[in-house]
Amino acid sequence: MTVELLKERLEAILGAENVLTEYEDLVCYSFDATMNVDAYIPLAVVLPETTEQIAEIVKIAAEEKIPLFPRGAGTNLSGGTVPVGGGIVISMCRMNKIIEIDEDNLTATVQAGVVIEDLINEAKKHGLLYAPDPGTVHCATMGGSIAECAGGLRGVKYGVTRDYVMGVEVVSADGDVSRFGGKTVKNVTGYSMTQLFVASEGTLGIITEATVRLIPLPESRRSMMAVFMDLESAGKAISAIIRSHIIPATLEIMDNATIRCVEETTGAGLPVDAEAVLLIEVDGFEGEVVRDAERIVDICKEFGAERTERADTDTERDSLWAARRAALPSLIKRASSTILEDATVPRSAVSEMLRAVSAISEKYGIPIGTFGHAGDGNLHPTILADFSRDGESEKVEAAIKDIFAAALSLGGTLSGEHGIGVAKINYMKDEFGDSGLRLMRKIKKALDPDNILNPGKLIPFDGGDVI
User: Fold this and answer.
1) CA 300 to chain centre
2) What is the pTM of this model?
């Protein structure tokens, strides 16, 4: 099919204003937030507003064997929305309606293009909380966060996106529309299809709508910062906090390189002489919060904290967490290229992983700033690279390989929340082996026999080749 004919058929479904084929428009959808991943210009970009429109688009793609690439805000960090090899990008951003906040069942039903922060703010009006809060919460969309199983700062206590998805509406590779799950707390009817689509990165179906769980807003919260003069002490304090059976709402870490970058960018008052800071928040009932906050301060001092500071006002608290959310943007400003990873280990292995990353940085002579969700073992080693230097690309590739190897050797995983996409696809065998990949390929083949749904992502084909 020619591009002209494809455009004509798509416009018949969506209207001319919702089909983009000019180069200047297409280039904006040729990449996502992932560094060091090649861009690909799609054949067309479509902007549907209904599930029915998406189903019709999929039917055309299935008939003509045209690849489809569902896309939210493009904030993902694994190349998951890059249109590898060209095809049709389906932008979900106009499907942005919060359909319902159901206080009786503590659920929200949303279209895939709803911005997560918009849902959080709407839920707050009802005294409720949608707990997942990825770093790009202000612009990331619900469909994308479900497809990637995004995490966020509150993951240590409240879990990640999969823990809140109760039901989905999905368009399959042949254009059929199906619904799985719903508002019931218990549902063991058939295969767990809802969870199959969570973290599937758009390779099994296109999520158009979701029903998610809400929880009551906590009554009280306290935030604090603990300052450490060495990374290992900070890691030991993390383990001790969890071992004490206190589960903070948030338990974050930033190393010295990250602290310095954030302070230069924000002037938040972070201690630039510290080797690490822990940013901690506890929430719940007032008495419980006061007790847990005091106990955490005692633990941090016991394990070598130079000092601790409390955020006593909402302004101070917001400033503290704004500094944490500025970690990646601040590191990006420091180098011509930044490669952000999210290798994840059991919480008990955080100290060992921090040491491993530090050794890898020294081994290859490449700066690596580490921050992340220390309370759930999800660290973000961020490589600061300059690819204009001779041999830099090879060093970076070797460092990434060593980071993944270290995480797997400690009982960890390749990704805690960013997904696999194209960036990590060639490492999948290291975690799952041949038998695990064969089973995943069977699932992909069963649901997408012509490989039109986000091809080239997540699952390496036989021989490990990426198509």
Assistant:
1) 29
2) 0.94
